[in-house]
Amino acid sequence: MERTEKKQIKFGAVVVVVFEIVFAIFVVLTVRNSMKDDIEVANVRIENFSAIPELSVVDGDNSGAVFDLDETKKSVIGGVLYDEILLNNVGSINNSDARIREGSAYNVYLSDLDVYVLNFIVDIDSLQQSYRVVYRWTNRYPNDNIPQNVPALAFCVNEDELLYEDFECRDGYNGYGEDVVVYNLLQNKAFNNFTISLYGDVYNGEPLTITINTDSDENSVKNAAVGEVSSYLSSIGFDLNDFDYTVGARFVY
């Protein structure tokens, strides 16, 4: 009788041990799946990076132009886009259908600044929302032409760029994300026959004002300068008319 009781005790102990092992495996798998979900949720997946056009070169010197949108850059883009989405949505977010809007992407190498600019609009059908993403990088460090700590930005699109209904979009730039990007790219840009002056505290929500300073007050000179600035901004996906700008002679005799 005593031997039978010992067998029962041993059998019970084995059952307990097996249960603990199974439970431990379950906990590990649950934690892994939870971590996996967190990683996926914290990084928006953009499905059609193939919509990005081939690299174009501004100023004609393509000696340093090597376009490489690797997985690290894609992850950075997905991360800033996710942070922007969190500002405008509460609860569970489905980001699997984020897509680059056809025809919205600009992929540019600015040879005089040695800066790459990737600029596009992302549409998210499940959220009925759109955002603009700008990624700037360089293969030369240090490079004062771009802020190294914030290579990618995601912000609200302009009203005329809305695909869905207006959702009163918020971003970290008080609605002046474009101003921040253009300020960074123009502050060290040198033009041949005129200079640029930039005004406005863009990082604290003040709009950018661009002053084009020419050597002459002749309309033909001023028009040529405006056209050159407009063409430069257009090459990276921005419209000069979206900004406050003035043009005039630096010295009028």
Uncertain segments are 13-19, 21-41
Structural Rg: 27 Å
Helix and strand content put the structural class at alpha+beta
Q: Estimate what percentage of residues fall within beta strands.
A: 15-25%
Task: Tell me, rounded to a whole number, the average pLDDT.
Answer: 82
The SSE order reads: HEHEEEEEHEEHE
Number of helices: 4
For the secondary structure, the number of strands is 9
Distance between the termini: 120 Å
The general outline is: globular
Tally of domains: 2
Proportion of helical residues: 25-40%
Task: Please outline the major beta sheet.
Answer: 6 strands, mixed
Account of the protein in words:
The protein has 253 residues and is of the alpha+beta class. The chain has two domains: 46-172, no CATH class; 191-253, no CATH class. It has four helices and nine strands, in the order αβαβββββαββαβ. The longest helix has 40 residues, at 2-41. The radius of gyration is 27 Å and the shape is globular. 24% of the residues are buried. Residues 13-19 and 21-41 have low confidence and may be disordered.
